[in-house]
Design a protein that fits this description.
The complex is a heterodimer of chains A (97) and B (602). By secondary structure, chain A is an all-alpha fold. Among the domains of chain B are: 86 residues, Alpha-Beta Complex (Penicillin-binding protein 2a (Domain 2)), CATH 3.90.1310.10; 71 residues, Alpha-Beta Complex (Penicillin-binding protein 2a (Domain 2)), CATH 3.90.1310; 207 residues, DD-peptidase/beta-lactamase superfamily (Beta-lactamase), CATH 3.40.710. Helix content of chain B is 33%, strand content 21%. Chain B contains 21 helices and 21 strands. In chain B, strand 13 and strand 14 form a beta hairpin. In chain B, helix 13 runs parallel beside helix 15 and helix 15 crosses helix 17. The longest helix of chain B has 28 residues. Chain B is elongated, with a radius of gyration of 41 Å. The N and C termini of chain B lie far apart (122 Å). Classes of the chains: A mainly alpha (97), B alpha+beta (602). At the A-B interface, helix 1 of A face strand 3, strand 7, helix 10 and helix 21 of B.
Chain lengths: 97, 602
């Protein structure tokens, strides 16, 4: 009888220690997960910021100024544009195979 | 204890009751009296009762009424975290961002904990762009909490915190950013520091853009780390993105052109509206003067005003095509009917209406082309006031545009029963009623859409692809609309009032307008408003463009001189970016001789 009790006691102690360990581990992992989540959110926000930053570097105003001043480009007028109808080209592609 | 040990029994005990032993505590005769037996029982009872009360209280506190302490306990480890929802973006029809939320830092201070040397204070003040006096004044506002500066750049916040001042903290907030800046300011509007819409689309779609903040209950440990979720969390719902029908390229170009025109003609202000003539989508709505929505210090009312929607004016000559259309539609005239406009004057109930110069006999088409007041009045006087009122109402005058945008005005159109004959006459050429530029642009979709006026939209409906043609409300027959369109086309050609509205490669049609500005009860002398409303290309109309320039001050004031060139440039750019093939043969030569413009009557 005493021996059984002793075995049970040992089992109890072992299981308790295990429980403590597991719950410690779970909390640690949870904290890590939480940190990862907030980092993801942070990166999302940063992404959004960079996107809008990128666009403010590519506003029509800036694009036009750079194209005109730095690259010496002019906007195309119908006078210098050759218009092609692509219905012919499309049927030609279709006829190929 | 020593005293007790030294005590010696003085008298034999238990002399009275026998079975209850009385204890001798001292040799003091006062205490030597025998203790009655009920007393110790009573004491035991009291102690027992005390225990019962304690146990009862413990049971009550821990089992029956445990809310309070549970709450107190929880308050010491559980935290409610706010999950901020981000405000939706506003994009143009191609997905270009017009407004989005970006993080920024706000600096705050607990003044009673604030400790800084004089040098630190100076540095901080310089970083925040204040004088040290201003900074001190701000710190005196409240002992507990003061915003030092909200929504500063990340770098500024970092530098400020690097000074190592005690009592200075930062908090992350969101700030609206408007990449397109002042070009789209009037459409997009802006928010206040709490991200509540104040103007434009930001205000009109506040509810959709806002989103809903979420919350989350967590257990935090000593180090402030989250170790467990408790209870249910409410996920934040981000605000919806709003997609406008605006094309940021067209918008920018329109803004740039009207800005240049205002500068060139020393004008006070200007507006441009570009509508898609097939789908009723607003492609651009620009006003000058404008402002940068991100930096709203020193703003004036003139900058904030969205003139295209909120300013009304008498539409003047731009109403003549509608009068002519009504006359044709009711079979009173044909485009080729000759009407005598000589001697350039007509008197109605004592008031005289005149043309800028006499023309003689003109066809209806020529009346529109040369913008003759007399001819228009002669057509109008054959009609019933009710007919004219119905026409004006059906093209949206005197009605608020069906567009979800703050500040859109109705304009003025008096009921026909109160019209006097002279008023009917002046209304036929656009005086005595008023409309905004936006309403005018919409009215002209009638000519561009085979006689149907179409509903206008500013926000994309995501269920239908962009540019889907819509059906409108029929105002006149398609035949009438097309013949008026031909007349509008002739306005931009030799002999018309606006040859400057011609566009290389595309046929255009439109109508100029010039008017004295109304001031108080009468008309201001030498203060004009010029505008041009037109359609392009005439063969298959794709866009309607309305341009208005307010108080041109360099001597030129006719719509054909001031507004028509802006129209021409905006049309050119818009049609090119829409990929509309040209409908005119382009002559590969430079026109050295300018076509003389016909002087219009107003």
């Amino acid at each position: 009888m005493t021996r059984i009790n002793l075995v049970l006691l040992l089992a109890l102690v072992a299981s308790s220690v295990y429980l403590v360990r597991v719950s410690y581990e779970s909390r640690r992992l949870f904290a890590e997960l939480d940190r990862a989540h907030s980092e993801a959110r942070q990166l999302d926000i940063e992404h959004e910021r960079l996107k809008s930053e990128k666009q403010s570097q590519a506003t029509p105003l800036r694009v036009e100024r750079v194209a005109r001043d730095k690259l010496a480009m002019r906007s195309a007028t119908p006078a210098v544009t050759q218009y092609v109808t692509y219905s012919v080209a499309a049927s030609a592609v279709g006829a190929k195979p | 204890m020593k005293a007790v040990q030294r005590m010696k029994p003085h008298r034999p005990s238990g002399s009275a009751g026998g079975n209850v032993r009385s204890v001798m505590y001292s040799t003091s005769p006062l205490l030597a009296s025998k203790t009655p037996p009920w007393r110790s029982k009573f004491l035991v009872g009291l102690v027992g009762l005390g225990f019962c009360v304690l146990v009862g209280r413990a049971v009550f506190v821990q089992i029956i009424d445990n809310d309070f302490f549970l709450k107190q306990g929880e308050a010491r480890y559980a935290r409610t975290l706010d999950l901020a929802a981000s405000r939706g973006r506003i994009t143009d029809r191609n997905g270009q961002i017009l407004a989005s939320s970006v993080p920024s830092q706000s600096l705050w201070v607990i003044p009673k904990e604030f400790e800084a040397t004089k040098k630190q204070r100076q540095q901080l003040a310089r970083l925040l762009g204040m004088t040290p006096v201003e900074l001190n004044g701000r710190l005196d506002d409240s002992p507990n909490f003061v915003w030092l500066r909200r929504q500063v750049e990340d770098t500024v916040a970092k530098d400020a915190l690097a000074l190592g001042i005690k009592g200075l903290f930062q908090m992350r907030e969101f700030r609206r950013r408007y990449p397109e800046g002042e070009a789209a300011a009037h459409v997009v509007g802006f928010t206040n520091v709490e991200e509540h819409g104040q103007e434009g689309i930001e205000l009109a779609y506040q509810k959709e853009l806002q989103g809903r903040n979420g919350t989350r209950r967590v257990v935090k440990d000593r180090l402030g780390r989250v170790v467990e979720d408790i209870g249910e969390s409410v996920q934040p719902v981000d605000g919806q993105d709003i997609e406008l029908t605006i094309d940021s390229k067209v918008q920018f170009y329109a803004y740039q052109r009207v800005r240049d025109a205002v500068a060139l003609h020393k004008a006070k202000a200007g507006s441009v509206v570009v509508l898609d003539a097939q789908s009723g989508e607003v492609l651009a709505l620009a006003n000058y003067p404008s402002y940068a929505p991100g930096d709203r210090r020193n703003l004036s009312g003139a900058q904030l005003r969205n003139r295209a929607l909120t300013d009304t004016f008498e539409p003047g000559s731009t109403m003549k095509p509608f009068t002519a259309a009504l006359a044709i539609d009711t079979g009173r005239v044909t485009p080729d009917t000759l009407i005598s406009t000589a001697p350039g004057r007509i008197t109605i109930t004592g008031s005289t209406i005149s043309d800028s110069h006499a023309h003689g006999d003109l066809t209806v088409a020529q009346i529109i082309q040369k913008s003759s007041n007399v001819g228009t009045v002669k057509m109008a006087m054959q009609m019933q006031p009710r007919e004219m009122w119905e026409m004006f109402t059906s093209i949206g005058l005197g009605q608020r545009p069906q567009i979800n945008f703050p500040g859109a005005v109705t304009g003025r159109l008096r009921p026909y029963k109160t019209w006097r004959p002279i008023e009917q006459a002046t209304m036929s050429y656009g005086y005595g009623l008023s409309a905004s530029l936006f309403q005018l642009a919409r009215a002209y979709t009638t000519f561009a859409h085979n006689g149907e006026i179409i509903p206008v939209t500013m926000v994309r409906n995501k269920d239908v692809p962009a540019g889907t043609p819509v059906t409108g409300v029929r105002v006149m027959t398609a035949k009438t609309a097309n013949s008026v369109l031909e007349m509008l086309h002739s306005v931009t050609q030799a002999g018309g009032t606006a040859p400057l509205a011609q566009v290389m490669g595309y046929s255009t049609g439109g109508k100029t307008g010039t008017a004295y500005k109304q001031e108080g009860k009468g008309y201001a002398d030498k203060k004009y408003r010029s505008w041009f409303v037109g359609v392009a290309p005439v063969s298959n109309p794709r866009i309607v463009v309305a341009v208005m320039v307010d108080e041109p001050g360099d001597g030129k004031y006719f719509g054909g001189d001031v507004a028509a060139p802006v129209f021409s440039e905006v049309v050119q750019q818009t049609l090119r970016s829409m990929g509309v093939p040209p409908d005119l043969e382009v002559k590969q030569q430079i026109q050295s001789q300018k076509l003389p413009a016909e002087e219009e009557s107003f």
